Amino acid sequence: MKINNNKNSPVTSGNVSGNVSGNTYNNSEQNRNLAEAAKEIQQLLKQLEQSYTGNFQIATKAIEHIESKPKRFPKTLNALKAGSIQALEQLLNHPASSFFIGALEEWHKN
User: Fold this and answer.
1) Closest CA to 63 of 109, 30, 13, 17
2) Is the pTM of this model over 0.70?
3) pLDDT at 89 over 90
4) Is the dihedral of CA 92, 95, 100, 101 positive or negative?
5) Which spans in the chain are helix H?
6) In this structure, which of 42, 61, 63, 67 has its CB flanked by the most CB atoms within 10 Å?
7) What are the residues whose beta carbons fall under 8 Å from the beta carbon of 102, sequence distance 6 or more?
8) Helix (H, G, I), strand (E, B), or coil: what is residue 5?
């Protein structure tokens, strides 16, 4: 028998017999990293909108910026590696975010 326990979820008790192994998934750290990645991207998009017009151009410049300075955006790149692009999209609040997510998905494929 295998028991999975997620933190911050209700726990039930009962009689268990046989071999028991447990996995703990710490989603709060992943969520925190995702929120920090969204904050990094949000700040970058706001910075770029001062110099560029058009959401597509802002998104393109943001991807170029991340490609040229990957050490500056580790949380963003880790979110990509974890496959959290859609979750990241939910956290972004900028007119260029949908263009950015589309470009990010294409960039991630290559």
Assistant:
1) 109
2) no
3) no
4) positive
5) 27-48, 55-68, 74-81, 85-91, 97-109
6) 61
7) 59
8) strand
Q: Which residues of 83-99 are buried (b: 16+ CB within 10 A; e: fewer)?
A: ebeebbbebbebebbeb
User: In the structure encoding, which two tokens stand for residue 78, read together?
Assistant: 């880790």
Of 43, 50, 44, 41, the C-alpha closest to 89 is: 41
Tokens of 15: 């009689």
**Tokens found for residue 63:** 């991807």
Q: Which residue has the tokens 């268990």?
A: 16
Q: Which two tokens stand for residue 17?
A: 């017999």
- For residue 22, the 8-state DSSP code is E
